[in-house]
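The protein record quoted in full:

***
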Amino acid sequence: MNPSAGSSQPEVTYLNHETTVGSWLLTRDHKRIGVMFLVLVILALLLGGVFAMVLRIELLTPGPTIISAMTYNRMFTLHGVTMVWLFMIPAIPSAFGNFVLPIMLGAKDVAFPRLNLASVYIYVAGAALTLFGMLWSGADTGWTFYTPYSTTSPTAVTPILMGVFVIGFSTIITGLNFITTVHTLRAPGMHWSRIPLFVWALYGTSVIQVVATPVLGMVLLLVFFERVLGVGIFDPSRGGDPVLFQHMFWFYSHPAVYIMVLPAMGVITEVVCAFSRKNIFGYKMIAVSTFGIAFVGFFSWGHHMFVSGQSTFGSGFFGVLSMLVAIFTAIKIFNWVATMYGGSIDLRVPLLYVLGFIFLLIFGGMTGVAVATTSLDVHWHDTYFIVAHFHYIMVGAVLMAFLAALHYWWPKMFGRVYPERWSFLSAITIIFGFIVTFLPQFLLGNLGMPRRYYQYPAEMQWLHVLSTAGASLLAFGFGLIAIYLLWSLRYGPESTPNPWGSRGYEWHSGSPPAPHNFTQAPRFEREVHDYTVPEAPRVY
């Protein structure tokens, strides 16, 4: 579609001028929907963090500390389910993507505002069903729901399975909405070569969401049928194959890593440009690498199954493809560093989280190449090395980018400025705390410490104590963030329209934006993040 020819904007009833509960619950404004998702995913992060702290306290001693072995099994399952399905997958796309994507494109709203509101309620329904299962008796299968145990476990696996199944529809709707919005609602002058890289990242993520999530839904539904109806799809005693579950589950769940990480990379690109005062180095290569990661991610699920009995050729093939992802990731890292090189660096809190992101991504990525090597992975498989690796890549990278986005777009979303010194203290605490939490776990895994174990040899205790100390620092840092951000909502100074002096397209609107985002139709005549001219973006 030629955006310069103009495109029809959706007819939307905006309720921004109302502050009643009903106006929020019935809104079709993408900004309010983004804020509602932000509140929901932060609550999920809080719940998942509480589960994590219980686990870390339990592991302070080699034997029983505060909970029983069965409670421990359920606790790490609930931690994984909450963090993966309720927080990390929807965190950046559903919260920040919903808020800024239409503004970046110069649109009034997303293509399907009613479906956008429906995605919130579907997420809430799925989360409620999942929480019901947690309160009923929990689950002890791990967040992966591996068969045959997940089909026979006496715990509340069924409602949790169905909760995750329902949440998948919210993910699919969001992906369809973003793809359609990018194709049809770009402002005049918004050519494909001017689309912000955060939007490109969301576009690539949306493709994965739409294509891969139905596979997850099918395999969860099959486990449900096996538990409820007794069909033998995965049960070997009835002619089923439990390895089939692994193939179907990881066909979705490996690309799901990039549903989490690709939007995070888009956030990093926006923040690097804004605080380096430079246009991005290698715009086309970053955009292409986004789709390279998305494409290769679909064909590398088998590296989770090196010990499942698959052929030597299959393991080698999946290992090589997994390493190929590192090349596309390196393209992004080199371009971010090249953008900062020679730039006018303004070390503000969002950029501090970017530096934490890059460190964790490089460190976790190198260990990812290692575990993609069959001979090494056989030793590390199901040890704490794997726990540390995916926390660096998935949790650490997503958290750093989530916090960078939260601090970067906070003035845009709420029109308030937070205290800089407190935010610096919390950022340093969180980055240091995360490293201290998971670096010892690499050492534990190399020593042969299996993951998910309730007890461990006494000589490993000092590493577990160090890991728990790091988790305590993390909790302290997040507590600081909650305090000063809530304070800023009430008492923080009002923000200027563009407090960072950024040239990103979203700063062409006010902070917070007008009900329709712009008071007049915007035209984006310059490249995104164009710092070759001295003037700031015009606020429409």
Summary: Residues 32-508 form a domain with the Cytochrome C Oxidase; Chain A fold (CATH 1.20.210.10).
